[in-house]
Amino acid sequence: MAAVTLEDWQKMRDGLSYRNQAFIDGKYVNSASGKTFECISPIDGRLLVKVAECDKEDVNRAVIAARRAFESGVWADQSPAARKAVMLKLARLIRENEDELALLETLDMGKPVTLAKAFDMNGVADSFQWFGEAIDKIYDEIAPLGNTALGLITREPLGVIGAVVPWNFPLLMASWKLAPMLVSGNSVILKPAEQSPLTAIRLAELAMEAGIPEGVLNVLPGYGETAGQAIGMHMDIDAVSFTGSTEVGKYFLQYSGKSNMKSISLECGGKTPNIVMKDAPNLDAAAQAAGMAIFFNSGQVCIASSRLVVEESIKDEFLEKVKAFGQAAMQPGDPLDPNTLMGTMVDKTQTARVMGYIEAGQKEGATLYSGGKQVRQNTGGEYIEPTIFDNVKSNMKIAQEEIFGPVLSTLTFTNADDAVKIANDSVYGLFANLWTNDLTKAHKMARKIKAGTVTINNTNGNIQLMPFGGYKQSGIGRDGSLHAIDKYTQLKSTHIQLD
Hints:
This protein has about 500 residues and is of the alpha/beta class. The protein has 15 helices and 24 strands. The protein has helices at about 5-15, 55-70, 80-95, 100-110, 115-135, 170-185, 200-210, 225-235, 245-260, 285-295, 315-330, 350-365, 395-400, 415-425, 440-450, and strands at about 20-25, 25-30, 35-40, 45-50, 140-145, 150-155, 160-165, 185-190, 215-220, 240-245, 265, 275, 305-310, 365-370, 375, 385, 385-390, 405-415, 430, 430-435, 455, 470, 475, 490-495. It has a 7-stranded mixed beta sheet, with helices on both faces. It has a 6-stranded mixed beta sheet with strand order 9-8-7-10-11-23, with helices on both faces. Helix 2 (about 55-70) packs parallel to helix 8, helix 3 (about 80-95) crosses helix 7 and helix 10 (about 285-295) packs across helix 11. It is globular, with a radius of gyration of 23 Å.
């Protein structure tokens, strides 16, 4: 029976076992060095397990296995129908094991288990299923060369690809990369973040059960400066797809230039403006959405609506509504409690980072409107209450830098042009929200906002069905939709002379 109560989840936790090794060439193995690192739960500070710490030698071993599998054609040369069957089976296995996977995610990085199950694991299964279903519906092209020649435009897998994923949605972000990589016929080396490796390690076992051949999927837990760098610099990795900070994303661009010019796709930082105009169709709904959009996952979301850009005439009324929602619905609680909607920071380092930004906001002259404190410290966990700043200026640190925590910065405007100017006053351009009842105004403003996605009267885009990625320093390339496959295939032109 699925876990439904706090006691159910606690009982499951107490009986849980952890996979903690690397997965290379179809087998769980220790790191070549024998080193491990501690996996600490931010819920209560307890040691969950010690995990294999992979480095350059482990990357070499995984690349050899992945390359051998790719060149043999054991996966790449399977028919689309055969690969489809494996991907759909993997989706089913994820659904069958969703309680375990959700619990691992929660213990590892502190998100509420109810959301880990309903949002994360459901999304993971959907991703593998969606791309699995798409695999035999993607057609090649014929160029219009006339009757004397035949021009074929075909897609081929890139080969061996590195996938480096963040800690905030560990398995969901992995699925966004793995699903299109695998359906395209590639072999993959997945490096989960050191803060949250447990679900990726477990996924490898489910993938083998589904029928992914040995060597096609390898999982290497480890640190960015060792395992991550080794992936970026490896001469026999054809591409790297990275999701994480802009700072680290730039490292991968450098690694590519210093190695084999491997293809790099990046989904990096964001500083989403949430523009609320006085003619918004429902201010109560907009306020609840604004609160959820910054406090969901404790603000550890690349598209978190961290800049509330609200029309001056409704600012006081609207801000009070957001504050009330945060206080009523989004107070940090035990992530294993099904009633909890807001959990923890991922670790002590992130807690200190977020508290540093809260201090900086006050020093720069912003008004701490609500929150701003660590809570539940007696648990040993990493909890910060929902925090709202008022009277924020665009040049302040809290308005410019990605905090990655439950901290909302409020700025005001008096007209649409001013709102767009504030929205675009950022090095980031990943996501933007706009609330207005005027469709013409919404369309014109959306065209001017420099962001990969603009949502109108909501704060969530359909990332599975639409391209997702950023402008400016938010990245290169797109996840989601069939466009994701563009990153993991290359086009070949074949000219056949008939006359």
